[in-house]
Design goal:
The chain is 6% helix and 39% strand. By secondary structure, it is mostly beta strands.
């Protein structure tokens, strides 16, 4: 019964034109915006912005130059990606691709993982979220790359590995590559590990803040000029003890 005066007061206010505060449902704007559709690349894309994920379909060839991608990049089976001066807000991922080459001042904000393909190259670029080049049948190349977070791992590539002139703020691991491994002039924030590579391994002029460890490489690695414990601790151990 006490609600009746309040209701009558509201009706009177409406009749005489007085302002009335009414409860309004929350605006639909609070709902998440719809995800941008994927962009398929089977040709060339230049200096434009891709609003979401960019996908290279299976068996396709994609060339990117100066492209800004607001999502991730995914490279399909048996496909090819050649990318220069690209910026990727998400990850760069390729599995069983024919060739992936990311070079020339490109920047990947997320994780870069190129695996189980043929040829994998990241060069002259930056990879904020870490790099993994693994289980490729051709050569894996990581050169002149800045890795801000997450470390760098070049592992189990049957065509060998070239790892040179990189700046890695965490760990750098070069392991279980066949066909030879060249590890030269890298600056490593934590540990450098060179392990179980075959076909000839060179470890030359690397600098690690912590340890440099080399084990079970066949034949034993060659090289010189490596510095461990650059920040005051750490040592060279195993097959790299005298390199």
């Amino acid at each position: 019964m006490r609600k009746i005066p309040a209701v009558l007061g509201l009706l009177v206010a409406l009749l005489v034109g007085l302002p009335v505060a009414l409860a309004v449902p929350a605006a639909a704007a609070s709902e998440p915006a719809p995800r941008a559709p994927d962009t398929l690349c089977a040709g060339s894309i230049g200096a434009t912005t891709v609003p979401g994920k960019l996908v290279v379909p299976a068996n396709a060839t994609c060339t990117l130059s100066g492209t800004r991608i607001l999502g991730s990049v995914e490279v399909g089976i048996n496909s090819t990606l050649r990318a220069t001066r690209i910026t990727v807000a998400g990850d760069a991922l390729a599995t069983q691709s024919r060739l992936v080459s990311i070079t020339t001042s490109s920047h990947i904000e997320g994780h870069t993982k190129l695996s189980k393909g043929i040829t994998a190259t990241v060069s002259g670029s930056s990879a904020f979220g870490g790099v993994e080049l693994s289980e490729n049948s051709g050569r894996a190349t990581l050169t002149s790359v800045t890795v801000n977070n997450g470390g760098a791992f070049v592992t189990k590539n049957r065509g060998g590995a070239t790892v040179q002139s990189n700046r890695v703020n965490a760990n750098l691991s070069v392991s279980e590559n066949a066909g030879g491994a060249s590890v030269r002039s890298n600056i490593v924030g934590d540990n450098l590990g060179v392990n179980k590579n075959t076909g000839g391994t060179a470890v030359v002029s690397n600098r690690a803040n912590d340890n440099i460890d080399c084990t079970d490489n066949a034949p034993a690695p060659t090289g010189s000029g490596n510095v461990a414990g650059a920040d005051g601790g750490g040592s060279k151990t195993g097959q790299c003890a005298n390199l």
